[in-house]
From TrEMBL:
It comes from Brassicogethes aeneus (Rape pollen beetle). It comes from the Eukaryota. Residues 38-84 form the F-box domain. One of its GO terms (molecular function) is ubiquitin protein ligase activity. GO terms for biological process: ERAD pathway; glycoprotein catabolic process; SCF-dependent proteasomal ubiquitin-dependent protein catabolic process. InterPro entries: F-box-assoc_dom, F-box-like_dom_sf, F-box_dom, F-box_only, Galactose-bd-like_sf. The lineage of its organism: Eukaryota, Metazoa, Ecdysozoa, Arthropoda, Hexapoda. This is Uncharacterized protein. One of its GO terms (cellular component) is cytoplasm. PROSITE patterns: FBA, FBOX.
Length: 295
């Protein structure tokens, strides 16, 4: 199939790219020590205010930064949000500015960005490029292979996509143009982009599976559009082809001003049999990682 991603998908980018390079965050206010810490003439140490505020839902906290300058300083501090991260996540917090933890805890931007990766909603969110043979289908549960593994990707859905005797391919575009804070963060810290999917074949027929991903940026000052891409091919020909295996791509170097991630997979059988004997795929993941060791 070659470099099917670049051959089959238009790379037209956003007409009006909105740069986030000029984002700025306010410095802490200069305030007297006691202001904002007295309640009914009783002084409350800042550490106690930290503790009280930590019981609030993360997404509600920013509006309380308007109470006074002291509260604003506390709520928009790196140490406060690092503690909030520890309270609300099992991951290593690392050392980042407060807005990184805020984005992580109050949005789904660091979750799996790929939708309907198992076909539970049929082909919703997907665009089919090639539908050869008897067309791409959905199996629930998978037929002719081992059951889907006991992995987080399959906790809710036990279905998979399956291909036929000619190429079947589809793709999904993840557009983050309007996620301005996320774009600023990944432009600044270049968090790894992790892509994966599980694939398997049938016991009675060989098959081949392809995974490709393309990361595209908005236009830079010279009007150019940057991109980074990667592909993997898996030939399911051995006796263990019935076992589900994870295929992974990791991007640590990609252009500035990332605005779109294109995920595409493809498959077919190796013996040109009528029906659905081609590669199966399920559990696709596209996500940003705070730390490479999360993989």
């Amino acid at each position: 199939m070659g470099n099917f991603l670049e051959n089959n998908i238009s790379t037209n980018m956003v007409d009006k790219f909105d740069s986030v390079r000029d984002f700025k965050f306010m410095d802490a206010f200069s305030v007297q020590e006691a202001i904002g810490l007295c309640f009914n003439d009783i002084y409350i140490p800042e550490e106690i205010l930290f503790k009280i505020l930590s019981f609030l839902e993360p997404k509600l906290l920013l509006k309380y930064s308007q109470v006074c300058k002291k509260w604003c300083n506390v709520i928009k501090s790196d140490i406060f949000w690092k503690d909030m991260f520890r309270l609300n996540s099992d991951e290593n917090p690392g050392n980042f500015p407060w807005y990184v933890y805020y984005c992580y805890l109050t949005t789904k931007n660091f979750n799996n960005l790929l939708k309907n990766g198992n076909g539970a909603k049929e082909f919703k969110h997907w665009k089919i490029k090639h539908n050869g043979g008897d067309k791409i289908d959905i199996e629930k549960p998978p037929i002719g292979s081992k059951p889907l593994p006991d992995e987080p990707e399959f906790v809710k859905d036990k279905s998979c996509f399956v291909t036929s005797y000619q190429k079947g391919s589809k793709y999904q575009e993840i557009d983050i143009t309007n996620k301005r804070l996320l774009r600023f963060i990944i432009n600044k810290f270049k968090f790894p982009v992790y892509v994966s999917e599980w694939t398997a074949g049938r016991f009675d027929c060989s098959s081949v599976y392809y995974l490709a991903t393309r990361l595209e940026s908005g236009e830079d000052e010279s009007g150019l559009v940057g991109h980074e891409s990667g592909t993997k091919e898996v030939r399911l020909i051995d006796i263990d082809r019935v076992e589900w295996r994870k295929v992974e791509l990791i991007f640590t170097k990609y252009p500035d001003n990332l605005v779109k991630i294109i995920f595409q997979h493809a498959g077919r059988d190796g013996q040109f049999w009528s029906g659905h004997y081609g590669a199966k795929m399920s559990g696709g993941v596209v996500k940003f990682l705070l730390h490479p060791k999360e993989i």
